[in-house]
Amino acid sequence: MLTKKGKYGLKALVHLSHLPAGQLAFVGDIATQNSIPKKFLDAILGEMRNAGFVQSRKGKEGGYRLARPAEEIMVGHVVRVLDGPLAPISCASRTRYEACDDCDEATCQVRHMMLDVRQAIADVLDRRSLAEMRDAVNDALLSDLKHHA
User: If you placed Cys at 9, which of 59, 82, 126, 135 could pair as Cys (CB 3.0 to 4.6 Å)?
Assistant: First the structure.
């Protein structure tokens, strides 16, 4: 399940993806416009800076911006950085695999189902860029407007 940290991080990145190239956004503005607690957002943006998703500048003219084009930032990578593995259980994880102590992995139906779930999640998140995520809302709105016209 996506945590609030993951959700807020994605919302902040989408916010930054709307900015003209090179323009910075203040943490307070991002927090207010996206209903994110500012102190929590400060910590999240720090992690995203360390992971190379955003750049920051301190001072009066400071703020945050994307470190690279939104088309190059994959949603799955962001989620893994902020929330950890995509798998619902550790024995189905590719990045943080841990064997279960209560079953035989070769015959465990729960594990096999969760491997499929993990793969389905990865298929969606690893194929979508931040730009696609940002633009999907506009695409859906346009489609909706055309449908109701």
Answer: 82
